[in-house]
Amino acid sequence: MNGVHDMGGMTCFGSILREEDEPVFHAGWERQVFPLAMLALGDLGTIDEYRHAIERMDPAHYLSSSYYEHWLAALETLAVEKGVCTQEELTTGIAQIIGGRTKPPLPPEVVPVIARQGIPASRQTDRNTPRFKPGDRVRARNLNPSGHTRLPRYVRGKPGVIDSVHGTFVYPDTNAHDGGEQPQPLYSVRFDAVELWGPAAVGRDSLYIDLWEDYLENDE
Amino acid sequence: MSTEHEHDHDHHNAPPDPRVEKHLTPEQTQVLEARVKTLESLLIAKGLVTADTLARFAEIYEHDLGPMNGAKVVARAWVDPAYKQRLLADATAAIGELGFGGLQGEHMVVVENTPQVHNMVVCTLCSCYPWPVLGLPPVWYKSAPYRSRSVIDPRGVLREFGVELDESVEVRVWDSSAEIRYMVLPERPNGTEQMNEEELVKLVTRDAMIGVAKVSVRE
Hints:
The complex is a heterodimer of chains A (220) and B (219). Chain A has 220 residues and is an alpha+beta fold.
């Protein structure tokens, strides 16, 4: 989706505002929404569905709201879409449908284990031998999907070079929708800054970005 | 408090910026508090999560993880060349040697700053960040100005952070578009030859590991 979240290369947002000795959470509600997102995901969707729910926010709201409000909005969207809550329940705050779950909620003692082990996105598969190797000249395809993608606009159509092969990873473009994980090779691709931004860029500067195989084509 | 003053000073008469959480009005905060409370109580009532589990999760990320972890990785790499080699070859495993890893650090890559090459890290599409070594990201890292400009004008962004690079230095920007998480191994500053690992840890800053600052010897 060509949304406002895809902001690489925009220059209209002004200078970077920094805060000295910034706290981890700025308010109690941020401290609540953070673990809610971590622990409710799974029931509410995949990480890719979650990112896409943020991207589907109204663009004016996206730009004018804080980071954790994005999280809250995405959780509310997915809770309704996945049938976990009704819109009415979210509005009234009164749970009308309870029960029916067979899986018990996670106990607190497994939380440090999840935090330490993580949720790897790499997959072992016997197919998907990488089509490209380091040094290969490639071009980011000019794709404009209506759904979720991790191919930002600023590299589309631009030539680059394969820097390394990361392995086989879950494909966000399908995993954010009904297509499943469909793992495929993921590459670190190097682009010259001048190719991306024109002659004003410094000649020796470069940009590295991680792109899935379906985002790339040969550039002979 | 001083920051708030400086911020106000920079933006005379500007309305509060809702993108900076601390500037939400009390009314906006109340609305958000109510929405979060509603969602939380519904998910608890429906048996998806428990209050204890949520609290434990927030506690870990508020208190146990942060840039002090990454600083230990950097200091070890500075004093132990074999460790540094392992770190640059397989960062996930080398960081794991020090006991760190997990959510948003499952697939780590560490890139080394040298006198010739300066690396910096961004996530233009959202706010991907290596939690096990740096903790949760600061607001500026998640903000539109940093996400948008880092790729097109990295040297201008670095200047805002007080880093002036010679044109002979190659700037490499890493856009975290997938599940690989990046950390910068900053240059060890001159004048630290006599310092031990523990002293070096104290010099390493979060910003240096994102690549928007250099490590300097402080008083």
